[in-house]
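PT: before anyone asks, these are the final sequences, not the draft ones from last week. 1479 residues across everything. Please model them as a single complex and drop the result in this thread when it's through.
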Amino acid sequence: MSKISKQADMTKSDGTGGESENFSLPEVKLSICLEELDSSDTMTRQSAIAQLHDFISDSRAVTALKKRRHIETSQECIADLDEILKLALTEKEPLKIDESQTGSPARIAQLWLTTPVAQLAGLFKHLKSISTEDQIMVFCEVLKNTGETARILPLLELSRRVLAADTSVAQLENLLSSNVSLLLIRVISLLIKLQPARLMNRLPQLLVHQNLQVRLMAIKGLHLLSKAQAIRLLNELISSGNRGRQYSAFTSLFVLPFEDTGDIVIRLIESPELPENLEHVIRYLVYNNPDLRFFKRITLSYLMHGKRIARLQSYWHLAARSLVVSGLTQKSEQVLKNEMLATARELIRTHLKQREEVKEENRLPVRTRNQKLASFAAAEQIDKSQTRQLLELCSQLSDSDEILSGIDLVNKHKLFSGEFCSWLESLLDSDSAQVVIPAIKTLEQAGQLRLLPHLPVLVFSQNIAVASASLETYAGIFPDKLAEKLKLWLRDKDSKIRAVAYQGLLKVDFQRAREIIMSLFKSSRNIELIKYYSPILLVNPDRSTAYKLSIIAESCSGELKKHFTLLAHEIQQVLGAPENEDQPASFINDAGLMQQWAVIHAKIRQISYENRQMELGDLFGSKGMNLALAGLLIIAALLFIGNFEIPSNLRQPAQVPVAPTTFSNDLGGMQADAPAETVSRPWDYQIPELATPPASLYQNQSLEEFAAVHEELARETTASSTQAAKKSPQIRLEEKFR
Amino acid sequence: MNKLIHRLMPQIRIRRSYNRSGYILYLVMSLLLVWAIMTFSLSRYKSGAVNLLSHTSMQSRLTCAAAAGMSEIWALARLQANDKIGKNDETHFYNMLNRVFDRNSNEVPPAQPYFCERAFSAEQLPYASILAEEISAGNIEVRGHCRIYFTRLIRKSPPAFSGHIEAIVTARPKSDSQEIIEIKERRDFKIIDTRDIFDRYALYVKDYGFDYNRTLQKLYIEGLGPPVRSSVFLGSRHAPPYQAFKGISGPAPIFFDFDFQQNKNLVPALIGNLHSPIPAGGVEIPSINGSVRAASKDNVFWAVPMPLRFKPIYDRGDFRDSDFYTVEALQQGYYKTFVESAQKTSGSQYSVPAMILDDWNRCGGNYADSQVFRMVVATSIEAWNYLYAYTDARHLWDDSSWTAFAKKIQFSGLSDYIETMKRVHPDKTVAGNMPGIFGADDKQPVILEGNVFFRFFKIAFFDEFTTSMTLGGKSASVEMPAIPLHFQDAAGNASFLNRAVRVHGLEKQLMSREVDEIPVNSLFEIGVSPYPQNVQAPENLFPNLSVAAISYRYKSPEDFIAANTTQMADNSKRLKIDGIMYIESGDLDLSSFKSFSGHGMIWIGFRGDVYLGDLAKSKPADILKIFAQDGNFIIKSDRPDVKISASLLALTYFSDPQRNKAALENRGKLIPNRHGVEIIGNLAVDYLFLADRNYGIPAGKSLVIKHDPFLFTPVYPKWSTIGPVRTVYSVNASREQSFFK
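LR: through. Structure below.
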């Protein structure tokens, strides 16, 4: 273990974090990476390899990488290792560069593409010596012509002026579609620094990239665009049960502002098992990021789960200490702690109607009057026969004090045999809390499985102390079993059972409790029930909770929607998170990309790293299921058509005889079926018997007669018809004769 | 008294209290009594009102039944008025309305009103009877009666009448003969003859047209017959002021370029035309030169069957030898054949070459003074064979250059033709081909009225020859080349070339020339007919209309469309036509209508264009005429080709002295608007054009006019329109005052 661990141990031991400020973050990172390089989890190793790229100049890193290369079995890791080791190689003979070869940017680019990778370092030095414009040209030219990671990566070390040029950024953006994770990570990291808006289009794909490191980098990018979504995704990643993912996600805690990741840190601290090296880092983070909100939050957590999770206390102290040391508060550490404790208690008091906790009395060893018992107590060790005697004695005890003494003896001599367990079990039926609670504690050590059937009964004990103690034990040793029970008790109509469920939810790990509560929120319409359990979420404020509540709020209406929205809002308030956290970054607005962002944002909202349980409703709502159902329907229809004959009278409705009421205007006959209008021609029909009408018919009007008709009409019509000017002659024919 | 009361009161109270058990019966009895009194009062005092109510109710039902009967009569009248099925049924409205035309003129207006009538029994009003049965449980009987009064003759020949139809419907209860409701209603009607002089024309064009010979945009007429024959009139009003048209009495001639390949079906008719038939000819020119014979084959459609000796023509005509002294080709021939060879062979003083040279020197280049030349001319007149043939413009020149055929010396007689025509008739400088006036395959004869002639060309030359000539007492063989006989403008100097001669009864001049005297109409009819039959001023011909014949009047096209649009099941729109429908003015857009039904004319009296797309009939007997009196027909369609089943008449008439009637924008036109157009009906316009960059027919498309046989011989020459307005409406409920006297 490294020096880091030792330092961390020291910090841990004195609980003040006095030397935390001397930590070197790169050292911590390197140490973590080197440890993770030997992890059994492929993803963790991949993450470590990617991060070790930053330490490629460190011989420790290179040695470890080479060592790993020999034993690595994962193809992905091998590919990454090869790429990274290529960069680590440097040829002994420096590259001899001819003047003629580097005359122009095009030539340098050509040289870059042809020189062995190991010699690129020499060329890189030369490249850095030429003008910025030329560097940009070389950069673009190379990126256009190659997709080889080892040739591209060194170029990414060029100065910011080179990389920030529009053409360079455009090339970098093209690289986002690369499938080499190592390259992708570097490019995303660069773009985050140069132009985060360029990442926008590819973000939805990058966020679900198969490589976790890429995802994390994408989350980092997303943090610039939408803080809320980034924190959510990070939260989801860390909350996932996958340890490898947690480790990897952990590194993000360094790169994102602590005020945004504070609640994630709290979750980590609250998590049942925290690996040692992570603990060191959390200490580092907590100590180096004095934050009043975090302190408030950890105070709440300390009050809520302090008993269960011992380490919370030391972190609480550390957070207070960091605030005092940083000078963010003028108060003394103790005053600060007291004030914050009072505030947090008040908050809990307003939100939780906790059963009165019975203060555990420090029971003084009773001086027993039973001589036999006293003799057993005096004995340092007891043999088998004595054990039998003690068992007999115990089974005859009836006085509480004597029973307690008996229990102490069992504890003292570690008498966890089945017989003693049976005796202890029998004590659980006692009315005295003084007896039951020590019996539970002892049974916890003696035979957990024997205790298990009793716990669901004991939690409903009339005695509050017994109930509380048994619930705590239940949560402590059988969290899964308790969770199962809680799911049942949660909805019970009996208020007593619900009260136990409520207490149980407070006792279990918050993430588990939240999962149970959320599933209730999603499925229940009982607003009273929902309101009953809501405070639990409030006293464990978490961004992730607020986000989930807002999602649930979107899918419901009325009172429920109002409640969920309010609850989410309150959680945000407790967290001190700004209201408009989900607002896009200002540069998106400035770049006029709001509409584009809206589409991408919607896509990102769809992304989740949680293992969602698909509900029946979702299943039927899913596209695949619909397609499958449609397919089944078609097959059923085909089978039906194939196997059954439809009666002919069903196919065609019976013809109702229609009386010939329609008379034809055509040639005096019945109406013929008219052909389609567009193709209708007179000679599709029988032509009338053509005969030249009499000449008298063609009596034509003289011009005078026609003029008279015209005049008559003109008199009858309005003046506008005759006098209005013709519309401007739009149609001017080619007048051929002019 | 008081004392008595005071004594009795306690007793009464006691008795009442004693009898309290029967008071409910008492109460019920009292209420029944009140009810009985009220019922009695109602029956006694309100019976009149109840009677009145039932009476009114019955009258309402009777009115309802009568109104139903009336509606049924009008429905029948409308349905039957133009239904030929009832021509032999005396009770059918078609028969009743058309009966008037069979009457003696003394029995009909204006001599006297004429009426006919028809009674409707309950069975003849089935729907009204069903309604009556439903509302009265079979107690009401509906009967009707109608009279058709012809009160006015609105056109003498062919006769057209107007009048009114009066219908009376009686509804009465079967149970009570005293009650009655009678409704009397009157509506006007018109029965007009829709036929017109334009019906017999497939195409009627008043103005001189320039586009008849277009090769890329064609006009095709598909006429009717036999036994009838469609007419086409092509007028020449507003003809351009070409020099060729100066001094012409009558309409300016229109020429159709005859293309003997494209119009091969017309060649026999042309040769045997009724104006000046051409004798049978050959297919190649019978020159002694084989190459000439070969060159002429397929380039001429008629050639003289054998060489014609020129001498008899010379003898018949008023020629002189000196006529030929100036013929340049002859001079050149002489010079090359005689003078040049003499110069080369210059022999002794008395040799023939020496004599020729001596003669040449003496004449000083003036051929007319050359003795030898004169001898050569005299010899040539004896020896020449006169050859000619007919060809068409397309074989002579191709756009702006002469064809190889035309460049051959023998066929180069028309070399001056173009230059001349540029001056006198520019249209003739273009080689085109005639419109398909006789159908697309030239097999459907029509009567073509107007001054329309064929144009094709005669190429003529004197064939080359070899003869022996005695010169200075010595016989010498002389070879003279062929001499093309050049076209000479009639307006220029007269020469032997354009001097009148008689050859074959057709050829009147020796020279090569255009043949433009054969009327197109003479192919199937006798000769040229410059004007429409019985019409002296074709430009003054308009549809035969009168204000009295108008059935419906609309202020604007919008009103017309709103009143006459039928929405079809397939969402297309159908136009309803019923008699003469007059629209005052405005642009009428019918492009959205896919079809029409009915029989009649849309008449836009004043300014207004008509926009048309595809328009079909709903049944063959439908006839639509559209008369744009001061506007154009403009094609408006998304499709490249439109088909319009209507008679389109754009014949401008206005009385505004401020407007120039000759201005192109004031003439009625069909504006194809870059569409191929097919008209099933006919077309009458002031000015017909086909080609125009923006508004003409696209290259490769055509204007096809198929003369509608139903237009020529309508199924319903008489069309009845029953007005939608009730001019009289009255209701009678009194039996004594019955409408029936």
